[in-house]
């Protein structure tokens, strides 16, 4: 069967944490039928303009050997501010005599837009791989300018300094925590309660800010449990994914570190890994996120009901005892609680007969 080019996400709920370009993400997921819960964790600030001007004057005085351009937005912001201060012409003249390396295509585009040429990018579009490339050669006594990506990359600058280079930092913008902390907490709680199916991140500081809110409310362990199990995490690239991986979470990362690639990868994953189909004695069943349909008749389940019904569907017709079923759920239930939960799921399903009681043994879905 041919898979649709735009996977349907009806029944799924996606949490977004980005501020910049957030509407692009929201539109993309909503077009595919998903419900979106948006809570930006950080904002992109314009930085300290007088400090950036001072950094620029230091670059002009030093006549650097190498420029590491991290982001397209940062390079454009730096050049625009330099223009406002009457420094653009001398800066472009200085950079024209500098070996320019770029972290990725966006930084390359910003560099080439003003008539400059770069001499390549890092293997993995990260600052780490860019520094790896620089350190393939002797940099003792070299002056290296690092245009930072919203926060000071101490690891990268430290490696260059230890190799003998003089490092000049330029920070045209800075990340700052978003002021709507209540919205972020609601998203943290939604992930902990498994009321979202997926969560996206587009920067490492966004991940750190998200966990900072969870930590202030004693929810880090509950959050990690959800992200390691039921809630899919997707990151735009390996730098963003790093703090999650360090916490034992294995996020999806597209091969191309782009917005479109991230959205496509997450959509495909949800459709391929999180949609359950089954032929049963009651009809054809599809469980898609929180939406269940039987021969086309649909209903919406709560997260707890979805968890219980999914366990029974994935048992492929096998009878599960109350103990087995209770222990298989994200939040284990005792026998009496399982009995009550099964009763509620039956009432919510389009075909109550989908969950059958096997006397003195447990429950099953009559999968054919």
Structure description:
44% of the residues lie in helices and 18% in strands. The longest helix has 15 residues, at 259-273. Helix 3 (72-84) packs parallel to helix 5, helix 13 crosses helix 15 and helix 14 (322-328) crosses helix 15. It has a four-stranded parallel β-sheet, with helices on both faces. The protein has helices spanning 22-31, 49-62, 72-84, 88-96, 105-113, 127-134, 154-162, 181-192, 204-216, 220-227, 238-246, 259-273, 303-314, 322-328, 335-348; strands at residues 13-16, 35-38, 42-45, 66-69, 99-102, 143-147, 166-170, 174-177, 198-201, 232-235, 275-280, 283-288, 291-294, 297-300, 356-358, 362-364. The radius of gyration is 26 Å and the shape is elongated. With 368 residues, the chain is of the alpha/beta class.
Q: What is the element layout, followed by pairings?
A:
Layout: E1 13-16, H1 22-31, E2 35-38, E3 42-45, H2 49-62, E4 66-69, H3 72-84, H4 88-96, E5 99-102, H5 105-113, H6 127-134, E6 143-147, H7 154-162, E7 166-170, E8 174-177, H8 181-192, E9 198-201, H9 204-216, H10 220-227, E10 232-235, H11 238-246, H12 259-273, E11 275-280, E12 283-288, E13 291-294, E14 297-300, H13 303-314, H14 322-328, H15 335-348, E15 356-358, E16 362-364
Parallel strand pairs: 1-2, 1-9, 4-5, 4-6, 6-7, 9-10
Antiparallel strand pairs: 3-8, 11-12, 12-13, 13-14, 15-16
Helix pairs in contact: 3-5, 8-9, 8-10, 9-11, 13-15, 14-15
């Amino acid at each position: 069967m041919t898979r649709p080019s735009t996977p349907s996400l009806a029944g799924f709920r996606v949490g977004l944490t980005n501020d910049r370009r957030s509407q692009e993400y929201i539109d993309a997921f909503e077009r595919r039928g998903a419900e979106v819960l948006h809570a930006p964790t950080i904002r992109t600030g314009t930085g300290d303009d007088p400090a950036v001007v001072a950094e620029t004057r230091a670059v002009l005085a030093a006549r650097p050997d190498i420029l590491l351009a991290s982001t397209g937005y940062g390079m454009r912001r730096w050049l625009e501010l330099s223009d406002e201060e009457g420094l653009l012409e001398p800066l472009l003249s200085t950079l024209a005599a500098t070996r320019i390396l770029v972290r990725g295509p966006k930084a390359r585009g910003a560099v080439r837009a003003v008539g400059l040429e770069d001499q390549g990018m890092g293997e993995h579009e990260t600052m780490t791989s860019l520094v790896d490339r620089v350190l393939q050669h002797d940099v003792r006594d070299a002056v290296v300018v690092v245009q930072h990506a919203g926060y000071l990359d101490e690891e990268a600058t430290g490696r260059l300094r230890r190799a003998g280079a003089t490092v000049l930092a330029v920070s045209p913008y800075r990340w700052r925590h978003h002021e709507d902390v209540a919205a972020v907490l609601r998203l943290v709680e939604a992930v902990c309660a498994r009321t979202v199916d997926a969560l996206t991140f587009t920067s490492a500081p966004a991940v750190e800010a998200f966990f900072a809110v969870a930590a202030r409310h004693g929810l880090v362990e509950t959050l990690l449990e959800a992200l390691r199990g039921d809630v899919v995490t997707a990151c735009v690239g390996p730098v963003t994914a790093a703090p999650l991986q360090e916490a034992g979470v294995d996020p999806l990362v597209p091969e191309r570190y782009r917005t479109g690639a991230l959205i496509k990868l997450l959509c495909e994953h949800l459709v391929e890994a999180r949609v359950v189909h089954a032929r049963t004695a009651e009809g054809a069943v599809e469980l898609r996120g929180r939406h269940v349909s039987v021969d086309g008749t649909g209903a919406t389940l709560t997260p707890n009901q979805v968890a219980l019904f999914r366990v029974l569907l994935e048992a492929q017709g096998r009878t599960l005892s109350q103990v087995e079923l209770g222990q298989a759920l994200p939040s284990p239930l005792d026998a009496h609680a399982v009995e009550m939960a099964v009763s509620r799921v039956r009432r919510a399903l389009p075909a109550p007969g989908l969950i059958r009681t096997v006397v003195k043994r447990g429950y099953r879905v009559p999968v054919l």
